[in-house]
Design brief:
151 residues, mainly alpha, Serine Threonine Protein Phosphatase 5, Tetratricopeptide repeat, 11 helices, globular
Length: 151
C-alpha cells in the first residue's frame, strides 16, 4: 500500500507544473512593507534581531503569506539571521501557510549550507511539509538537487 501511495505521489507531483506552485520568496513589495523583525531577518541584520528579541519582539509573527522571520531569512539565505532567531527562541520547524519549513525552503533552493544550518539548529528532516505532504528530501529529489539529497 505504501508503494502505491508513493508511486501515486510521484506521478501526481511529476504531472504538476512546479513553476506554478513553487515556493515564492517575499516580493519586493512585501519586503518594503515588513515590520522591523521581518526586515532585519531579510537583511541578515543580527544586531537588530538581538535588540528586538531582547525587547520582547514576537519571534513567531507572520507576514501575509504566513512566513515567520525564520522563513524570510531562509528565502534570503540569511544564515546569521536564522541562527540569531533560533537562539532567541524562534521555531525552526514552524510552517508557513503552504506548510513549508526552513529546511524545505532551503532544500528546494538547493541551499545546502542553509539545510545543514537548519538541521544543526534542531530542524526536523522527517517533518511532513508542503501542500503535497512530502518531506524536504522528497522535494529536493524531485527537483534534482543531488547535492542536497546526497548529504
Amino acid at each position: 500500500m505504501r508503494l502505491i501511495a508513493t508511486l501515486f505521489f510521484v506521478l501526481v507531483w511529476g504531472a504538476v507544473d512546479t513553476d506554478a506552485i513553487a515556493q515564492t520568496p517575499p516580493s519586493e513589495a512585501e519586503i518594503a512593507d515588513y515590520g522591523q523583525l521581518h526586515a532585519a531577518a531579510h537583511r541578515n541584520d543580527v544586531q537588530v534581531i538581538q535588540k528586538l528579541s531582547a525587547a520582547g519582539a514576537l519571534l513567531e509573527t507572520r507576514d501575509k503569506a504566513g512566513r515567520t522571520p525564520i522563513h524570510v531569512a531562509a528565502h534570503a539565505k540569511a544564515y546569521e539571521a536564522i541562527d540569531a532567531l533560533v537562539k532567541a527562541g524562534g521555531d525552526i520547524n514552524a510552517l508557513e501557510e503552504d506548510s513549508y519549513d526552513a529546511i524545505t525552503i532551503a532544500a528546494v533552493a538547493a541551499d545546502l549550507k542553509m539545510v545543514k544550518l537548519a538541521l544543526s539548529l534542531g530542524g526536523n528532516p522527517k517533518a511532513i511539509t508542503s501542500r503535497y505532504d512530502g518531506t524536504a528530501l522528497i522535494a529536493a529529489a524531485h527537483l534534482g538537487h543531488a547535492e542536497v539529497v546526497g548529504r
